[in-house]
Amino acid sequence: MQKNKGIVRLFRAFKYSIAGFAAALKNEAAFRQEIALGVPLCVLAAFLDVPPLGKCALICSIFAVWIVELINSAIEECVNLASPGMHPYAKRAKDMASAAVFLAIASAIIVWTAVLLPDYF
After folding, report:
1. Are 58 and 48 in contact (CB under 8 A)?
2. Pick from 40, 37, 50: which is nearest to 119 by CA?
3. What is the structure's pLDDT at 1?
4. What CA–CA distance (Å, rounded) separates 110 from 11?
5. Which whole number is the average pLDDT over 19-41?
6. Confidence at residue 49, expressed as pLDDT on a 0 to 100 scale
7. pLDDT for 87-107, tens place per residue?
8. Exposed site from 18, 20, 74, 85, fewest CB < 10 Å?
9. Chain mean position to CA 11
10. Residues identified as active-site
């Protein structure tokens, strides 16, 4: 089977990405919550009176949370498929992925605080 190349590959990759977003929005409550909070924060960041690099940091910190949550969800799906029963390795993998989400959220809080604290508080 020949692999797709060029623009066809890009369109198919985009299609798969959209399917991934749709699956996460449909099946992952945490992702829906992070989107519901993150979208308004990104809009707010665009209108805040902070330098462009600060706005970029604020928005990228939200994107980082979404990225890590998508990876966490993918890990959970794979673990559930590979180990439907309880297994200490499966629990460890899920717990580590969850810890990564926690760190991404903590990092976003730190970025927002560092950017906004000097000018707004």
Report:
1. yes
2. 50
3. 58
4. 36
5. 98
6. 93
7. 999 999 999 999 999 999 999
8. 85
9. 22
10. 69
- The DSSP string of 19-50 is HHHHHHHHH-HHHHHHHHHHHHHHHHHHHSSS
Cα gap 46→41, rounded to integer Å? 9
What CATH number is given for 6-120 in this structure?
1.10.287.3610
In the predicted model, what is the mean pLDDT of residues 11-35?
97
| Cα–Cα distance, 57 to 67 (Å, whole number) | 15
Exposure string of 83-120, with b = 16+ CB inside 10 Å and e = fewer, is eeeeeeebeebbeebbeebeebbeebeebbeebeeeee
| Residue 50: count of CB within 10 angstroms of its CB | 17
Q: Is the pTM of this model over 0.85?
A: yes
More reliable by pLDDT, 119 or 110: 110
Angle between helices 52-82 and 6-27 (to 10 degrees): 80
Does position 24 have pLDDT exceeding 70, yes or no? yes
CB atoms < 10 A from the CB of 54, how many? Answer: 19
